[in-house]
Amino acid sequence: MKKKLIILEHISKSFGELKVLDDFNLYINENEFITLLGPSGCGKTTLLRIIGGFESPDFGKVIFDGRAINDLEPNQRQINTCFQKYALFPHLNVFDNIAFGLRIKKIDKHIMEERVMTTLKLVKLDGFEHRLISTLSGGQQQRVAIARAIVNQPKVLLLDEPLGALDLKLRQEMQYELKEMQRTLGITFVYVTHDQEEALTMSDTIVIMNEGKILQIGRPEDIYNEPKTRFVANFIGESNIFDGIMKEDYIVEFFGKEFECVDKGFNTNEEVEVVIRPEDFVFMPPSKSKIVGIVDSLIFKGVHYEINVIVENREYTIHTTKHRNIGDKVGLWVEPHNIHIMKKGEV
Q: Using the 8-state DSSP alphabet, how is residue 93 labeled?
């Protein structure tokens, strides 16, 4: 059983009349890569700053390793933070930037040198110790910022959108490197982002937030495949959402036709919402399909086509490697396990 390293109990925080966090409860396991994901203003950075000690909650407790730490300063916590703005010292070289915290703690010189050089290898900057910060690329500066945080051997590393300033290709490379780094270090990473791809790529657990509250917690594949609300379905990837009727367990009706699904536990003939991801639709001959539409638009996305199909005066999105022409009449099919049912009105 995993150990709960951080427990947040009934955390509330307001700035003036704006309530940013509202009775927020969450636990974070030891050695976990957990991502706080949500739109700007949802409270994720405020929550990170409360964990790190840079903000104090109005109400509630922050418990770390079994001990309440609300009154501890940031430097008294076994937690380090890597911000989006790296805040490196331009007048110091790479080695001295990374060693800065160790020098403040008056760590033995030989131990300090060994830890800095080991950390440089970990972030793939061995040989860069004498380079000035101004000569480094954005990705290299980001690695220095992470190295400076982890050289202190914290139990938790907080990362506040650290890849935001990087270009797309470098950002994707760093996603895999950060995940590998977390595995190697064996410490807890708490990561803040509004980027769905980052969250899905790196996380063990994703916490979807909106308006200071948790909407859903789960593994990336569970949140993607089993969204609990319309907001989550739309925020994580693209979704086609339409009205349906749950006729009975495992049978749902939409577009006036009945389909098998894998959901149960709804009332007989309960009104529901049906979610189908764009990549889960399959083209088939219209004569053999329960769903028939007309291709309205087509965009080539590199690895697939994004095709919009009009069905009963509404537009739905399909991702497919199959080319279709605008105006084509098409049939659509979806496997029962790719039909997800949500309660009506869950936002």
A: B
